[in-house]
Design a protein that fits this description.
Shape: globular
Low-confidence stretches: 1-26, 253-258
Number of strands: 12
Radius of gyration: 19 Å
Distance between the termini: 15 Å
Number of helices: 15
Order of helices and strands: HEEEEEHHEHHEHEHHEHEHHEHHEHH
Largest sheet: 8 strands, parallel, barrel
Oligomer: single chain
Strand content: 5-15%
Length: 340
């Protein structure tokens, strides 16, 4: 297992050779629409995205289309240019919103990402076509293998030809870049990365949970992030607020037998603030922080945290981790699983 000390050493080395740069928020970038949020490198070729990415899942929670449209418009107005989604978010409603309110007006101004949880080559192919149709585009900027859950899940998808579908999508131009995601256990990420290395392959990106609780239990930051940096993957952070669990909320995606009974309100009990949850992740060597918003106020708050971000010292990051440590574990990080 990689220790946190070794992780920090690896991170410092990555920074020294230029794999990670411009973590602070100062930015004067703009486009035809106005000021753009701070940009960070996502792709090895130097292509950048805004350091804040609007999550697609929560947009799909919004039932009123006009409210969803307002969230998209406010995000564009405030300089967000990176947009996340996935084929099965809310039975496709999240992608449909992008196809109605985002791509018709702004396709040339944004970096558009979606994901496929398909378990077979046939499912993945169909989901890509469905995503392109729903979002009214003939190409996504990034398409990711969605939610690698276990080692057995990785093997099943590989044996069923899913990886080949993604490689073909990149070769054909339907996806400019490809990557993978997962939030169950960092060992699954390491297993898949090892497979790719043996095949002489590298994908472009990885999306994984990173937050103040993570370093203290089954840590993606400690175990997976150093290898991703070493191999120059674009790192997209998610679960910055543990899917709402840090506020004592539960999103019921866990199996019935594993559902948590009492989720502590980490923010209320620890003294941490909403802003510090994002500041901690922005202080890591990540390309972008993907977070969902279901109101205009949430968009404003999240974007303003980035605009005001100046970077945290190592001592400041350690202080935040120490405040969160008593709450690390399944009750709060209930999207994780310990592999046998």
């Amino acid at each position: 297992m990689i220790t946190r000390r070794k992780f920090l050493k690896n991170t410092a080395a990555a920074t020294a050779v230029g794999l990670v740069s411009n973590w602070a928020a100062a930015s004067n970038e703009s486009d035809r629409l106005g000021a753009v949020l701070p940009m960070r490198r996502l792709i090895r070729n130097g292509e950048k995205v805004t350091a804040f990415c609007l999550g697609g899942y929560h947009l799909g929670v919004v039932e009123e289309p006009k409210e969803a449209e307002a969230i998209v418009e406010k995000s564009m107005e405030m300089g967000v240019r990176f947009y996340d989604n996935a084929r099965r978010y809310w039975d496709g409603r999240a992608e449909d919103y992008y196809g109605r309110f985002l791509t018709p007006k702004y396709r040339d101004d944004i970096f558009l990402m979606t994901k496929s949880p398909g378990k077979t080559a046939e499912e993945a192919k169909k989901e890509l076509e469905d995503s392109l149709r729903a979002m009214r585009t003939d190409q996504v900027d990034l398409w990711q293998i969605h939610g690698l859950n276990t080692i057995e899940d990785v093997d099943r998808r590989l044996n069923n030809g899913v990886l080949e579908v993604f490689l073909e999508a990149k070769q054909s131009g339907k996806a400019r870049y490809i990557g993978f995601t997962g939030h169950r256990n960092p060992k699954v990420h390491m297993y898949f990365l090892d497979f790719l290395k043996k095949r002489g392959l590298e994908l472009d990106t990885c999306q994984l949970p990173l937050n103040v609780c993570d370093p203290s239990w089954e840590s993606f930051e400690v175990e997976a992030l150093p290898e991703l940096l070493k191999r120059e993957y674009g790192v997209i952070a998610m679960k910055t607020m543990a899917g709402g669990s840090m506020m004592g909320l539960r999103i019921d995606t866990t199996p019935k037998e594993l559902k948590t009974v009492d989720i502590p309100n980490v923010l209320k009990d620890s003294g941490l603030t909403y802003a510090e949850l994002h500041q901690y992740v922005y202080s890591l060597p990540v390309s972008s922080l993907c977070s969902g918003c279901i109101t205009l106020e949430q968009v404003k708050h999240n974007v303003n945290v980035l605009k005001r971000f100046k970077g945290l010292s190592e001592s400041e990051k350690k202080r935040l981790v120490s405040l969160a440590k008593p709450y690390a574990g399944f009750n709060v990080e209930n999207y994780k699983r310990v592999l046998s």
